[in-house]
Amino acid sequence: MLNDKFFDLAKKADLIGWNKLPSGAITPDYESVVNAKKFGELLLNEVLAKIDEVGYKSSNNISADDTELFKNALKQHFGVKQ
User: Fold this and answer.
1) How far apart are CA 31 and CA 57, in angstroms?
2) Hey, where are the domains in the chain?
3) Helices 64-77 and 30-57, packing angle to 10 deg
């Protein structure tokens, strides 16, 4: 599950639709939130896979431990359970 950081980014990218309730309150459209979170998860998984690919094939002496530290930092930033 992604955290509020991702939700804030999704709002800035206009990925979230909004509903106006009869009371006048404005709430996020559930389907757009689900779709935006799915997109975020897919994107993050692609980034994590690329980190693995570059880290293991790199001539820059990036260790497996460094690669895992960076991946874990990204996961933590976006609220992904480890």
Assistant:
1) 39
2) 4-77
3) 170
- At 4-57, the pLDDT tens digits run 888 888 999 999 999 999 999 999 999 999 999 898 889 888 888 888 777 666
Size of the chain, expressed as the number of residues it contains = 82
Contact 77, 2 (CB under 8 A): no
Q: How far apart are the first and last CA of the chain?
A: 11
Q: Tokens in use for 9?
A: 């980014």
DSSP states of the chain: ---HHHHHHHHHTT---EEE-TTS-EEE-HHHHHHHHHHHHHHHHHHHHHHHHHHHH-SS---HHHHHHHHHHHHHHTT---
Question: How much is the pTM?
Answer: 0.72
